[in-house]
Write a structure and sequence with these properties.
Distance between the termini: 31 Å
Radius of gyration: 14 Å
Shape: globular
Order of helices and strands: HHHEHEEH
Number of strands: 3
Oligomer: single chain
Number of helices: 5
Helix content: 55-70%
Length: about 120
């Protein structure tokens, strides 16, 4: 199963390299990014990572702790597409403060894809 997931991830990474900027995401690009996030979550489930089952909005402290452990970047939800926000909420990578401001933790995988697309 792990080999199959790696093959799918590699194929998706190759396809996404030529997609336009994420701020102007095509439907295919959003689908591809969503699939990659799902693959990463499946890999964690296979390895028995219990945090994957905890699908909820987190506190800012929890989000920062996850950032320290797993890497990535914390960004304002205002800078994200709706699908990215929905995925972050579903995978426990979102924080909503009492004043309504929202933040998500973009995964290291997501950041790596963005760098690959920009040729950095």
């Amino acid at each position: 199963m792990e080999d199959r997931l790696q093959k799918i991830k590699k194929d998706i990474n190759e396809r996404i390299k030529n997609q336009p900027d994420s701020r102007c995401a095509t439907e295919d690009e959003v689908s591809i990014c969503w699939l990659i996030c799902e693959i990463e979550e499946l890999k964690k489930k296979i390895k028995g990572d219990k945090r994957v089952e905890n699908k909820m909005v987190k506190t800012l402290e929890e989000l920062i702790n996850d950032l320290a452990i797993e890497g990535g970047a914390i960004v304002s939800s205002n800078d994200c597409l709706e699908i990215e926000i929905a995925n972050a909420m579903n995978t426990g990578r979102m924080c909503i403060l009492e004043d309504g401001l929202g933040f998500i933790r973009r995964t290291k995988t997501w950041l790596d894809l963005q760098k690959a697309r920009k040729g950095k």
